[in-house]
Amino acid sequence: MPPQDLEQQDIAFRPAPELLAWVQKNILAEDGPLHNPEHKHLNHADLEFMWASQGFTKAGRQVAGTAEEVTFRAGGWQKGRQVSQMVEWFGRIPDYLITLDASYCRQCEDAEFCALVEHELYHIAQVEGAFGPEWKKDGTPKIAIRGHDVEEFVGVVRRYGVGGPEGSISRLVAAANKAPEVSRVAMAAACGTCLRRVA
Q1: Which DSSP category does 42 fall into?
Q2: Where are the beta strands (DSSP E) in 12-88?
Q3: Cβ–Cβ under 8 Å, residues 189 and 37
Q4: Are 55 and 2 in contact (CB under 8 A)?
Q5: How confident is the model at residue 188 (pLDDT cuts 50, 70, 90)?
Q6: What confidence score (pLDDT) does residue 191 get?
Q7: How far apart are CA 192 and CA 195, in angstroms?
Q8: How far apart are CA 165 and CA 153, in angstroms?
Q9: If 141 and its partner were Cys, which of 41, 47, 51, 130 is the partner (CB 3.0–4.6 Å)?
């Protein structure tokens, strides 16, 4: 759960090392109850998590999480301030940062929280080249930020359909028509305080 004192602040940020530990134990670890092999490249990623006291609106939608490559687009004192803040928060400058809306995470259901976390993890992907996954010279996965699998309007799909069977919308519809791969029991096993809710 996000820190309680974030509720009293308009906009504030806190490092979330406990969330990174939870992700490593439950999603990245092969024996984790929510293990997803599609994230195995993240075992080599320099990743950190952060809480924001609230979300924000972008393109008319409420944003509850972001994943970003940590970069500094300013020079001089601006860059110095940004670097100093990262070092103060994490002791270093991580390569990737996932920020979650604490107010949303505090009230959402377990499945919504897990889906949000995995959504942001999916944005940090192994680079795919013409011949498959790419690797760095040291043998670790080459990682970059990637966009969403599907970007379309409901009205277009309603009027014209989902397109060919290999298209991203068709694959999303096929996935939606199957039972979820992660059960409520597995989600509860990832969080000791949730076990009482599963019966």
Answers
A1: G
A2: 13-15, 47-52, 56-58, 61-63, 65-69
A3: no
A4: no
A5: low
A6: 55
A7: 6
A8: 18
A9: 41
| Contact between 100 and 55 (Cβ < 8 Å) | no
Beta carbons of 110 and 188 less than 8 angstroms apart = yes
Find where tokens 């950190």 sit: 48
Cα Rg of the chain, angstroms: 19
pTM of the model: 0.83
Give me the chain's average pLDDT, please.
Answer: 88
pLDDT at 66 > cutoff 50:
yes
Pick the closest to residue 68 from 147, 157, 151, 4 (CA basis).
147
CB 50 within 8 A of CB 102: no
Please give the torsion angle defined by the CA atoms of residues 187, 192, 198 and 199, in that order, rounded to the nearest 10 degrees: 140
Q: Which pLDDT score, from 0 to 100, does residue 158 have? A: 82
Helix residue spans in 58-123 (DSSP H): 76-90, 102-107, 110-123
